[in-house]
Design goal:
Two copies of one chain form a homodimer. Chain A is α/β, with parallel strands linked by helices. The first copy, chain A, contains six helices and twelve strands. In chain A, the strands form two sheets. A six-stranded mixed sheet of chain A has the order 1-4-5-6-3-2. The interface between A and B is medium-sized, with 28 and 27 residues.
Chain lengths: 235, 235
């Protein structure tokens, strides 16, 4: 937690917040904060700054906060991820958020098991929690836009051609001939398949929508590792 | 598990192996393998190929294996990681291995808590297991060289200048002025600090040993995310 995320409901008065629960525990046991200490804070979808510890109780603390900094810029990247299995979803979402991805679409694909869509990890509450963890890690406050899309075909055929217009659109697909572009500064859309890979027909639909397939070499990476490697390579 | 790792002791006869335990469970419940199915296999630190399921019992299976492929090349990268906290160590080690890092040094640093060195995750057995998981993920068989180094100073002052000779040596340090080099083809040494960062004195010691500091921007990434992003950027 390199930034303590604040929410509107934490404010006792303008510039004064009270923290309990997870954030209090973290600040007291990991930061080992004492009265007068200064912590990095930010308000969700707002500005960042510092909070000075003005009160420290057994189960809560209060901070005087000054929010005078802008959060870091996002990457101009829309990440389209075939919905990962639940165990992997949290890590992938937090990692993509920490990297500064601007928009994340969790998309269905043939090799996404139907049961994944019923996972309790897909609740709004859990998705938000993972994103907040990623923001707190990276010292950012701006939630990425997040969409869940159950219907591959209508999304890819009807919506995606408009969404990728004027962006560099890439689909990671082992065995493609295209190398991965580097040092890109224009808006980019990047599609990463499920654990078993995209079907050839799915890749073809993405190509029809304006994507170019890229190959990442012989190694098969976990989705969160692949996302980070591609972000490092492309931007 | 994109490759099933085989060990010498799995062989019943040349070209014939018997699997029980973790690998059997995975093959039967995830791959849902049946008699005659073909699986990607490889022998630890050796060649890769296919295994045909020739026998399927309740708690074991047998494969006829043909090992006729070389594993993918490693990245010419030595990764020097300040020992991560135990919870993070497994993921970082598996991720670095899956990315193809050739050599990994887990190094002490001022902000590495002493207790980390006593973690049961540092047993030879666990370290090997995490590396094997990374190899199985990436379809590779070659263990990276792994060293644990308890003494920062003697390592950095006495050994490191020789180890980094003729390599591009980079130390990730927020606030440095150097941008991260890209598309490097020469051997590289990359040092990544602990969660609280390197001390300035530690960075200076690394500079004296031949490293150049690089800055990764305002976002603070988890160690496994930072490793993947840097590998994507540098190579």
């Amino acid at each position: 937690m390199n930034l303590i995320m604040l929410f509107e409901e934490d404010f006792l008065a303008p510039g004064r917040v009270r923290l309990e629960g997870r954030r209090f525990s973290h600040v007291s046991s990991v930061h080992r904060a004492a009265l007068g200490d200064s912590l990095t804070v930010g308000i969700l979808n707002g500005r960042m700054g510092v909070g000075i510890v003005t009160r420290l109780d057994q189960d809560a603390l209060e901070l005087d906060v000054r929010l005078d900094q802008d959060p870091p810029p996002k990457l101009p990247l829309t990440l389209i991820l075939a919905l990962p299995r639940p165990k992997v979803l949290n890590r992938a979402l937090a990692a993509a958020t920490s990297l500064g991805v601007a928009r994340i679409v969790l998309l269905n694909a043939w090799k996404v098991e139907k049961s994944y869509w019923k996972s309790p990890r897909l609740t709004q509450e859990n998705l938000m929690r993972q994103q907040v963890l990623g923001l707190e890690q990276a010292k950012d406050t701006m939630l990425p836009e997040l969409r869940l899309v159950r219907f591959f075909r209508s999304f890819v055929e009807d919506e995606l051609p408009f969404l990728v217009k004027d962006t560099l659109a890439l689909v990671a697909h082992p065995g493609s001939t295209g190398p991965c572009p580097r040092c890109v500064s224009k808006p980019t859309t990047l599609a990463i398949g499920p654990e078993g890979g995209w079907l050839d027909a799915e890749v073809q639909s993405l190509i029809n929508a304006g994507f170019q397939p890229i190959d990442l070499g012989p190694r098969i990476l976990r989705v969160e590792t692949a996302v980070a490697t591609l972000v490092g390579r492309i931007f």
